[in-house]
Structures are given as structure tokens and as C-alpha cells.
Specification:
Number of domains: 2
CATH topology of the largest domain: Rossmann fold
Number of strands: 10
Oligomer: single chain
Protein name: DUF58 domain-containing protein
Low-confidence stretches: 31-37
Pfam family, one: DUF58
Shape: globular
Strand content: 15-25%
Radius of gyration: 21 Å
Mean pLDDT: 83
CATH class of the largest domain: Alpha Beta
CATH superfamily of the largest domain: von Willebrand factor, type A domain
């Protein structure tokens, strides 16, 4: 990516952020309560509530579990956790799309006076941008995002990325995880742990060709993570059926793992319009909150 951070931010502000004005109909609504310190009310306990919020005196008196609610902090801390692994960078354009999506999210939250931080992860190489607010801070974030990431040739350690996010984001907040989640599904416990403290929104970036490979004849495909190459005939009906079955099984396994981890999961294709993607995110948060 050759654009400077300032040009990238100004282009996205003009092409995306300005187009969002009047379409979002309110800010992104978080699902959690009780982030403040001022007591507001009591209500009956629900299975999804944090047991630490149970008011034991009221519970003993009424013989029904009740939880304490607090006035929610107005300031929100949002973290952008970005997978910078080889599968995100090579050929499919997911890294470029994820960069623009992250900058737009950062600008939208910072414009509302919220703090935004970022974690850029590529196995042994990590960069953490501390949470700050303001346009100048988003310029710094854009600068970090357009830097060429390092690589060590290993497959993506997604569990390590999520554990780093959990130890970095100390204050309860909103965490966006931008990744293609290509690799072994060994990250579910780390994602579940991250979701116990924060509201986690997974934005799984996919290229359309990863879901439906067209008939291109005889082609050489390469594993972006390991470099392994394989010659395949995309005209072979048996190969296409096997590939379609494996894609469907992987999609089902990923969706089930996200559901078990208790996080919000969106599959975002790299050919989607950024404006519509962000509008859909906000509308979904409103429906869930309602």
C-alpha cells in the first residue's frame, strides 16, 4: 500500500465516514451494563449475567437472585485486534480491506470522544498502539497499519493473538477482532476468555474465491501460511464437489466455535461496500440491544 497515513485517512473520511452521517442513527451500542460505579437499579438475575453483580442481601431477603445495575460509563474504549499473518496479505487483498475497515472503525469511535487502541499481530511480531482519542491518534494508527508486517514463516497462532489482546486490554471495553481465522481451531478457549471481560465482535474477512472457486482449468495453488504448492484441476467435478463440501464444513465449524465462545460474529467479504458493512454492524448491535 503506497498511500500515506494522511491520504488514507482523508480518503476514507470522504468516501466512507461522511457517507455514514445520518445513516447510523445512533452510535454502536454495547451489550454489557455495569461498567460504571454509580448504583442505578436492581433486577432479576438472568443466566447470562455476571455472578459478581448478584446482590446477596436482596437475594436472601426475596429468595430470588437479583443483580445490581450501575450507570454505564459514557466513555468507551475500543480495541482493534488485527491478524497480519501471511494468509491475510498474499493475493486475496484481505489485509488492505482490513486496514481500511480498521481505520474507519477507529475514526468513527474516536470522533465520538472514545479511546481507540490497536494490536497488530503476526506470530512472534506484535505491535501495540495504546488506546487514545482524537484524529491525530487515528493517523498514528493508520501509519502502523500501512507498515509492511514482519513474518517468520510460521502458521498463524490465533490463540496467541487473542491471549495478547486479553492481557493488553485491561479495562472493560469493546474488542473488534479482524482475521480470516485460517488455521487450526484451537483458539476457542482464548476467544471465550476474552469475551468474559469484553464485548467481542469478530469480523472474519474472506475473499469470495475462498468460498466459491470458479472453473479456471489447471491452476497452481499455494498455501499462504506454509508456502506448500499444489497443482489442481478446477474443471474436475469431483474436485469441485469435495472443495465445496470442505468449505461448507469449515464454515459450519467456525460458526459453531464462535457461538460456543459467546461472541458476536460477522463474515465480511472483501468485495463488500465499506459503508454498508459498517451500517450493518451498527444495525445488528441495535437489534441485539433491543
Amino acid at each position: 500500500m503506497t498511500a500515506t497515513p494522511d491520504r488514507l485517512l482523508r480518503r476514507l473520511e470522504w468516501q466512507v465516514v461522511r457517507r455514514l452521517d445520518g445513516r447510523l442513527q445512533g452510535a454502536y451500542r454495547t451489550a454489557f451494563r455495569g461498567a460504571g460505579v454509580d448504583f442505578a437499579d436492581l433486577r432479576e438475575y438472568e443466566p447470562s449475567d455476571d455472578v459478581r453483580h448478584i446482590d446477596w442481601n436482596v437475594t436472601a431477603r426475596l429468595d430470588e437472585p437479583y443483580v445490581r445495575q450501575y450507570t454505564e460509563d459514557r466513555e468507551l474504549t475500543a480495541w482493534l485486534v488485527l491478524d497480519r499473518s501471511a494468509s491475510m496479505r498474499l493475493g486475496a487483498g484481505k489485509d488492505a480491506f482490513g486496514t481500511e475497515l480498521a481505520v474507519c472503525l477507529g475514526r468513527l469511535f474516536a470522533r465520538g470522544g472514545n479511546r481507540v487502541g490497536a494490536i497488530l499481530y503476526d506470530n512472534g511480531f506484535q505491535r501495540v498502539v495504546p488506546a487514545r482519542t482524537g484524529r491525530t491518534h487515528i493517523l498514528r494508527l493508520a501509519h502502523e497499519l500501512i507498515r509492511e508486517p514482519a513474518t517468520d514463516g510460521r502458521t498463524t497462532d490465533l490463540a496467541g493473538m487473542l491471549r495478547l489482546a486479553a492481557t493488553t486490554a485491561r479495562r472493560r471495553g469493546l474488542v473488534f477482532v479482524l482475521s480470516d481465522f485460517i488455521g487450526d481451531i484451537d483458539w476457542e478457549p482464548a476467544l471465550s476468555q476474552l469475551g468474559q471481560r469484553h464485548e467481542v465482535v469478530v469480523l472474519r474477512l474472506v475473499h469470495p474465491l475462498e468460498l466459491d472457486l470458479p472453473d479456471l482449468g489447471l491452476i497452481l495453488v499455494e498455501d499462504a501460511e506454509t508456502g506448500e504448492q499444489l497443482l489442481v484441476d478446477t474443471n474436475d467435478p469431483l474436485f469441485r464437489q469435495r472443495l465445496s463440501d470442505e468449505v461448507a464444513a469449515r464454515e459450519e465449524a467456525l460458526t459453531a466455535a464462535m457461538r460456543r465462545a459467546g461472541v458476536t460474529h460477522h463474515r465480511v467479504a472483501t468485495d463488500q461496500d465499506l459503508v454498508q458493512t459498517l451500517v450493518d454492524l451498527v444495525r445488528f448491535s441495535h437489534r441485539r440491544r433491543a
